[in-house]
Design goal:
Elements lengths: L1 E10 L2 E7 L23 E7 L9 E5 L2 H32 L5 H25 L8 E7 L5 H17 L2
Antiparallel strand pairs: 1-2, 1-4, 2-3, 4-5
Length: about 170
Amino acid sequence: MQQQVTVISLQGDQALVRGRRASACGGCAGKTSCSTMGSWVERFVELRIKNTLAAQVGDEILLEVPDSAVMTVAFRLYALPMLAFVLAGLGMRSLALWMDWSAVEGLAALAGFAAVVVYYVCYKLYLSDRQNGLDVRMKRVLYTAPATASECAVSHHSSIQLSHSSD
């Protein structure tokens, strides 16, 4: 998967990039007139990544995320919480039946929901000491932002001098 983003700030060897959030509607010809799931609202995502291309603020960059990384994140965000829900619910149901408690189904559902909350809290803590959950890489610079006004003036002045010296 590839995504075009803009560098909005630099901090050491890290770049904060911002781009439009990709969605299933991205390639649809009717996305501008469709109101499904709030498609009229433009969504952005910001991500801090290693600046391997020495990109500058304002540069347009092409990022690449391996498809396997997307599948891994999807598994972690959807399949594992569902598994935690089912296992905790079944475990609580078995315990409630064994202990002869009332409201077995309610306890099982509550245990399942609690397991999902605990899972997401643990996952958030797991990600907090990492850069991000994906293996995002800068692939290439698509557009280099213009230099500051003073740099442009110096560059323009030196090119004028060079053209005069060649005459």
